[in-house]
Design brief:
Helix content: 40-55%
Structural class: alpha/beta
Bound molecules: SN-glycerol-3-phosphate
Mean pLDDT: 96
Distance between the termini: 31 Å
Strand order of the largest sheet: 1-2-3-4-5-6-7-8
Length: 204
């Protein structure tokens, strides 16, 4: 039952990592741009603070670039490196090649169980179904996480489910109840996990 934070804000990550409750970080180009930082400076600082698992997204549609960049990042940052690729033909081909080299790959932008099947066949360490964005389109994001988790369990797949695009604490617990291995969430959602009105009342 792992919790990742979905942010590139280093001071906030360091502060939360100190709680001992955080197992990793997912980043993406939008989050890094928002932080105004160079991606590799962010990875370096996080690795220096002992964050054990950092998803580093590569943006290209060229298999050779995915693979060479993935290998370079692994060389540079070591065991904490997880390479994030999209669920496209090029991304999945790169996933297979990198996974064969023993590099962890997170296949992102997963919106169906069939995409999750392909990612598992490509040797992905993680798949990231986007719960909130599925909900935004009037489908059931938590149900997608449940379906993929069940499918992997039935097929004894080694790929882990990393539920992403979560916007509220209720979805966090529902994803875990539905069998997800990992949940990544914005810091604001993580902070709300502590809250209960009866805890406050009990303290009063
Ligand atoms: O981890 C994926 C996440 O960054 C996307 O979140 O809220 O933009 O759908 P959201």
């Amino acid at each position: 039952m792992k919790i990742f934070l979905d942010t590139a804000d280093v001071p906030t990550i360091v502060n939360h990592f100190d709680t001992g409750l955080i197992d990793g970080i997912t980043t993406n180009p939008t989050l890094i741009m928002k932080s105004g930082r160079n991606p590799e400076d962010v990875y370096r600082e996080l690795a220096g603070h002992g964050v054990p698992d950092i998803s580093m997204e590569i943006v290209t549609e060229d298999v050779d670039v995915f693979v060479s960049e993935g290998k370079r990042l692994k060389e540079e940052f070591g065991e904490c490196t997880t390479i994030k690729v999209p669920c496209t033909p090029a991304g999945l081909k790169a996933c297979k090649l990198l996974s064969d080299e023993g590099i962890r790959v997170n296949v992102t932008l997963i919106f169906s169980a069939t995409q999750a099947i392909l990612a598992a066949k490509a040797g992905a360490a993680y798949v990231s179904p986007f719960v909130g964005r599925v909900d935004d389109n009037s489908f059931d994001g938590v149900q997608l996480v449940k379906d993929i988790s069940l499918l992997y369990k039935e097929q004894l797949a080694r790929t882990q489910v990393l539920a992403a695009s979560l916007r509220d604490v209720r979805s966090v617990s529902e994803c875990f109840m539905g069998g997800t291995d990992i949940v990544t969430m914005p810091v604001a959602v993580f902070d709300k996990m502590y809250n209960h009105i009866l805890t406050d009342k009990g303290l009063d």
